[in-house]
């Protein structure tokens, strides 16, 4: 019986003969060699010369494709910005430092302010009847002193520091009556003198001011390119803000602020709004979209004003800044979150570190009244070649040269309590030593009941007196100076908009 191999080759022998079969075998062998050689040459077509690859014209290999991937873009711009503030024509007659009183006149605050920029930037200050005179004075003698076209809105018409105060709630009466708003009735009672007003009642009215405030700003300065809104406890760094706005096109609908979560949407999504206490900015295009009304074929309005359309929403919600964010969202304008440049922290509460160091600071919230004026004076004397960075504010606060303070807390934001059995929990001196021995501890707070709390950021904190517990705060000055020396800012980090990078 013939083998299977013989049976397979037998038909070929009959067809070609034995000699021809040998020639065919040789041909197949040569073809295989040529194929393998070509494959190997293709695999060697990427040569290495001096550590760099030279690609063949056959197209990128898998290695080349992975190498062609660009690194992820940073979440900031390093713009080379220019100050709109004028340089000194002559040396100022006064000096100021964070440790000595201001010795010049108050007019020195505004000697270099770019007043000409205010024709295109409308700044709006929101206040209220129940706000303390000290708070209002700190804002209007410091933060907004140089704003010649300042628009002040409130819940009562009056005059403050030479500025007319506009009652923006007066025009809401017809809409409030339609929905029978209980809180708005407080305003009506106040106007009649029937109610004793306190801070809590004033806050209940505050949310009604936001939308008519936008409408009043637009009506007051319809040609403005930017609208900036702040409260009496907001501090704005005007030089930095003007530098920022110079980088953007006001004909694009833009809404800048510190992101806060607002109205819920379908699918678990959420509207983000600019936190009012940190201040926020709207471009002309954003305001135009927000206040726009539907118009019929004869030019007649088919719907109400912005305030009228959202009156019921405002009445149901807690916060006017949240409703404003929702109204903008429904108008097709979403928040461009610029935290930490727009910041909800006060000056003394800033947790200086990687997130608060090389970034320009645009705004702060709830700083001490003395700091509201002190910062304005400090800014007026500084060289404005570069924007104010958070690292500059650490100089203002003299961080790295602080002594322990009693009845003081610098760890109530982001503090890390040490383990129960840690030696640091035994005494103030042990807590202090443990912080100094830990490279990551930059400050600490000791709680007299036996708690040692570390801070991995640099924070001034503030005075806190408790009835039965004593707090003592300290700073690892050597560690702070070491950290600062290793974190020099090569360029300002102007943060790109984000709704995931939040407070």
TrEMBL record:
Transmembrane segments: 21-41
EC number per UniProt: 2.4.1.122
Residues covered by the Fringe-like glycosyltransferase domain: 216-291
Recorded superkingdom: Eukaryota
EC supergroup of this enzyme: transferase
Pathway(s) per entry: Protein modification; protein glycosylation
MF annotations from Gene Ontology: glycoprotein-N-acetylgalactosamine 3-beta-galactosyltransferase activity; nucleotide binding
Record-annotated Apple domain positions: 424-458
Main localization (coarse): membrane
InterPro entries documented for this protein: C1GALT1/C1GALT1_chp1 (IPR026050), Fringe-like_glycosylTrfase (IPR003378), Pan_app (IPR003609)
PANTHER family, per the entry: APPLE DOMAIN-CONTAINING PROTEIN, BETA1,3-GALACTOSYLTRANSFERASE
Family that this chain belongs to: Belongs to the glycosyltransferase 31 family. Beta3-Gal-T subfamily.
Protein name per its UniProtKB record: N-acetylgalactosaminide beta-1,3-galactosyltransferase
Organism for this UniProt entry: Penicillium angulare
Lineage of the organism: Eukaryota, Fungi, Dikarya, Ascomycota, Pezizomycotina
